[in-house]
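agent> Task received from the user: take the single chain below, predict its 3D structure, and emit structure tokens. No templates, no multimer pairing.
agent> Plan: (1) validate residues, (2) run structure prediction, (3) serialize to tokens, (4) report one or two observations.
agent> Step 1 OK, no nonstandard residues flagged.
tool_call: predict_structure(input=
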Amino acid sequence: MEPKLETVLIMIISNKPVQYLLVTLLALTSSVNFASTPVDSISVKHENVELAEGSHAASGHGETVGHEIEKEFNASELINSHIGDSHDFHIADWDGHPISFSLPIILWTNNGLEIFSSEKFHHDNTGEHVVDANGQKLVRYKEIIFYADKFEEMTADQRDNGAFAFDARPLDFSITKNVFSMLMSAIILFFLFFAVARSYKKNANAPKGLAGFLEPLVTFVRDEIAVPNIGTKKAGKYMPYLLTIFFFIWINNLIGLIPFFPFSSNLTGNIYFTFVMAFITFIVTTLSGNKSYWGHIFNTPGVPVWLAPIMIPVEIIGMLTKPFALMIRLFANITAGHIIILSLVSLIFIFKSIAVGPVAGAFVLFMSVLEMLVAALQAYVFTLLSALFIGQAVEEHDHH
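)
tool_result: status=success, residues=400
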């Protein structure tokens, strides 16, 4: 028996009462993200076709018989569509037509600034539908927007690596799913701590509600991350930054686990996002470096003079590998979790049997709960290592 997506979704959701209870209590949730994946890409197609004229002659009269035409399921396509970015939110399908929330396309083209809705592409992501934007012919291929004439001249390999074909595409400043998620999480973060600040103004001695929930987390970041790694005297200076990255990464990790609009993005599983976050930590660390810190880099204590020219580039490389480790660790862990969950769900369609559903659903539930733990753990690790690197930069060394 071949399962339909709707059946699988109902089955998985019904097996997750504990997880959705946590959603109600903590505004945290975890699940597989189907919102960015069109149902047509993972469901089995059926359509009626008429018999050939030879069958008509054999039977003596015309008949129309249901004939199943199966579209091969592509697990790689499903996974890539989930972990990648897009210009709209796919919400559902109704009567064979996708229902989506279109995001604004903002481009700097050869004719200047162009702004229009992603709805103009009519959900085409293959480069076939051409959009006329003030005289500019544009197409979209795998969520990358190209000039139509340049796109036609490109080979298949060039199209697949089109992110770096800057001469064939306009500058894209669009509000994509990841950008939308980032802005939404920033707004959530602002109102979250604005409400906490108001609560403390009214009653600083006994915070209640949201302030009472967040106070242990703030205290944890201060006492278990900032103070041990930076020191009591200087920890307060970096607490705003550490609290921001901790909650910002945690909230975005959780947003990526909620399977419906306006959530479902994979921001923290995007290498560009983790690069920027790691780069900010690198800038803060570099600007915070004291005389002792730079002395260890350019004049490493205890190293012979003849070895100093070798140690300087080694130390500089060490400076760069620290933020690189931050970037890769967050990206790899979040992306791996999404891939594992989607791979488990894909087993249902690969084996083409709903009997696999309960087994896959149980594993998905286990991985989803584990992903909730990973969401907090990766926020903690990123913040901890950032505090450690900053602490190394501000630490006073005694060489005597």
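agent> Step 4: summary for the user.
The longest strand covers residues 88-94.
agent> Done.
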